[in-house]
Amino acid sequence: MGKKKKKKNRGSRTHGRGIKGGRGAGERGGRGKAGLQKHKWKSIVKEDKDYFGPKGFSRPQGLVEEKEVINIYQVEQLIDDLIEDGYASKKGSRYEIDLGKAGYDKLLSRGKARFQMDIKVPSTSERAQRKIEEAGGQVIIKEN
């Protein structure tokens, strides 16, 4: 086992690194991400092609609002709970449902309308409205 490099280079002024090699981060081409557009360009081209350029945009959290949506089949599954909570009532064979008061913003069309339902909701898809009307009900668009 040979001598350690430090001990071996005592008295040599540069310790085998040349005149400027031992100072700062010069020999490694700079610290961190320095030189990525210049002398370290090859690493960017090979490993991280999407390093430069736009990355997208996130809207401020205060502006992002998620709509509460419900499908026709979910309305039919929840109809007993909606009646119990006072958001719906049954008159004969028809159901009157206020989805706006129940906290929903939009009615979507997934599922089949098997009951006659009069639904009050802030907004709806055209298909959902058509399905409810084909079953003998109606959709009333109203703001909360």
> How large a portion of the residues is in β-strands, by DSSP E?
15-25%
CATH topology (level 3) name of the domain at 69-141: Ribosomal Protein L15, Chain: K, domain 2
The CATH class name of the domain at 69-141 reads Alpha Beta
Low-pLDDT ranges: none
How would you characterize the largest beta sheet? 4 strands, mixed
How confident is the prediction overall: mean pLDDT? 88
How many β-strand stretches?
7
Class computed from helices, strands and strand pairing: alpha/beta
Q: How many angstroms separate the termini? A: 84 Å
Helix-strand topology string: HHEHEEEEEHE
Query: What's the CATH architecture of the domain at 69-141?
Result: Ribosomal Protein L15, Chain: K, domain 2
List keywords for this structure.
3-stranded parallel beta sheet; alpha/beta; 144 residues; 4-stranded mixed beta sheet; Ribosomal Protein L15, Chain: K, domain 2
Explain the overall architecture.
- With 144 residues, the chain is of the alpha/beta class.
- The protein has a domain at 69-141: Ribosomal Protein L15, Chain: K, domain 2, CATH 3.100.10.10.
- It contains four helices and seven strands.
- The strands form two sheets. It has a four-stranded mixed sheet.
- A hairpin with a 2-residue loop joins strand 2 (88-91) and strand 3 (94-98).
Chart the SSEs and their pairings:
Blueprint: H1 5-8, H2 41-47, E1 69-71, H3 72-85, E2 88-91, E3 94-98, E4 106-108, E5 116-121, E6 123-124, H4 126-134, E7 138-141
